[in-house]
Amino acid sequence: MKIAMIAAECVPYAKTGGLADVVGALPQTLQKMGHEVIVVMPKYGFIDTQKFRLRPYLGSLGVWMGNTLEWCAVHVASNGGVPVYFIESDKFFAREGLYHDKAMNDYLDNPRRFAFLTRAGIQLCRDTAFAPDIVHVHDWHTALGPAYLKIWHWNDPVLGRTASVLTIHNVGYQGVYPASDYAYLGLQPGNFTPDKFEDHGAVNFLKGGIVYSDMVNTVSPTYAAETRTPDLGYGLAPYLNDKGDRYVGILNGVDYTEWNPATDRRLPANYTADDLSGKAVCKRELQRRMLLEENPDIPIIGIVSRFASQKGLDLLAEAVEPIVNAMRVQFALLGSGDPTLESYYGPLPARYGGRIGSYIGYNNDLAHLIEAGADFFCMPSIYEPCGLNQMYSLKYGTLPIVRATGGLEDTVQQYNEATGEGTGFKFSEPSASAIYYTVGWAVSTYYDRKHHMAQMIQSAMAQDYSWERSAEGYLWLYDQAKQVKP
Ligand code: ADP
Ligand code: GLC
Predict the structure, then answer these.
(1) Are residues 121 and 228 in the same domain?
(2) Given CB 3.0 to 4.6 Å as the disulfide criterion, which of 56, 142, 234, 288 pairs with 137?
């Protein structure tokens, strides 16, 4: 099969979250399975063209946006053998941020930037006679792709047979913009209606994408069910329900070439389920790095997260001090985002010296060290479409403490105190006290039921969430899309 993926993020070039991990790994896996995949993304100003060996590919590509003809250039690089095409437009992408400036203000032309990226990706396929079976788009940024195919290319010699798939990584971000942007998007005036793009007078990218896609998926079965309800559908539940069985959940995979304690080159020592001595070395290094008391017998709870309301870190903020006051436990926290949370978590180590370590910022090396060196990993998410960190944690024998929602519910098995079965600790109420008591449960297991800890670490490390499994799911989805395409 031939697949063209268009996305705003892709590792190792540009990443703010798990979307980039997925767009980096899924194409490589599909390609190894014998399929032909290309990726199209922006050439952001911060991308290191030398390091990543970008080569000029097309000097100019003309793209119609409404009544405006926009021009861009195209570069190409190989991401583990997958061609990644970079859309170069100084006007839209030569900036230091993906979506916002340093002061966290969203770029006002985001709807234009990403609509342009999407149409440029489709135009690139057309102009280079790459006739994909599937155009696969991700999140609101590129959700207009299926609409462009159906509105402009339904009868096209290159793209007329191309079906579309939209993957929703987070229904909380929909791309809702003023109606004044609509004409530029080039979606035809007649489609600005409540059953398509119009949403309370504004344009809603994700909603239009859902309506026009041949198949839609999100990144876990539980989140697929949750988003069909008013509570977590954020206004789009009726449209997701309208899709019927054309909306499904497919769990993300883990890139075990990056996230495997046996081979991870970012760690001071490697380890396996058979020999965990390297994990103790990582724990010592983590305690040293984060200025925690260097004591192998105190459990560490790790956190690596975007500071966004979805992640439940405001609830954790109410629980963390009571926890360290009542229990012999340490926190190692890494994250950035919401300034209120940054200014809460940033100064905590100064007040709880040796017991709480925090690093405000983005740091991949430290993320790996926390996964390896901690004993537990906490994700108290309000909602979590899939979540990658809990799956990394399982592989690193770092038991997840999670709220039972979305992908967290699907990937973590509840500890059974009678048998020692399970891979982590789950709670359901979104409250500080639920976090407090569940952390208490984990910590008491650490001190009082060491044999259960050992058993759970073995079960956790034996879990397999490799991309091959997820890629099978996507191949099924692509087949479905081809079948249902009108
Ligand atoms: P989301 O995409 O909602 O942020 P995921 O769990 O799917 O959540 O993916 C988060 C990814 O981003 C993981 O690879 C995680 O290690 C990484 N990450 C998040 N915050 C940071 C940070 N401050 N430093 C390093 N890596 C981070
Ligand atoms: C989103 C979700 C996260 C998911 C990731 C990759 O950022 O918040 O749960 O793992 O996308 O699909």
Answers:
(1) yes
(2) 142
Q: Which ligand is nearest to the CA of 363?
A: 1
Q: Residue 306 CA: which ligand 1 atom is closest? A: 20
CA distance 108 to 482: 36
Mutual angle of helices 364-373 and 277-289, in 10-degree steps: 130
Task: Give the separation between CA 364 and CA 155, rounded to whole angstroms.
Answer: 46
Q: For residue 127, what pLDDT band results from cuts at 50, 70 and 90?
A: very high
Question: Does the CB atom of residue 63 touch ligand 2 within 6 A?
Answer: no
How many structural domains comprise the chain?
2
* Ligand 1 geometric centre to CA of 442 (Å): 23
Let me know whether 180 and 320 are in one domain: no
CATH number reported for the structural domain that contains residue 286 in this entry: 3.40.50.2000
Q: Is residue 266 part of a domain?
A: no
pLDDT digits (tens, 9 = 90+) for 24-41: 999 999 999 999 999 999
Q: Which domain covers residue 59, as residue numbers?
A: 2-253+467-484
Looking at the fold, whether 246 and 309 belong to one and the same domain comes out as no
Sheet-wide strand order for 55-65: 55-65, 68-79, 82-88, 36-42, 2-6, 134-138, 163-168, 215-218, 247-249
C-alpha 373 to ligand 1 mean position (Å):
17
Ligand 2: atom nearest CA of 252 is: 12
List CB contacts of 388: < 8 A, sequence separation 6 or more: 18, 21, 252, 254
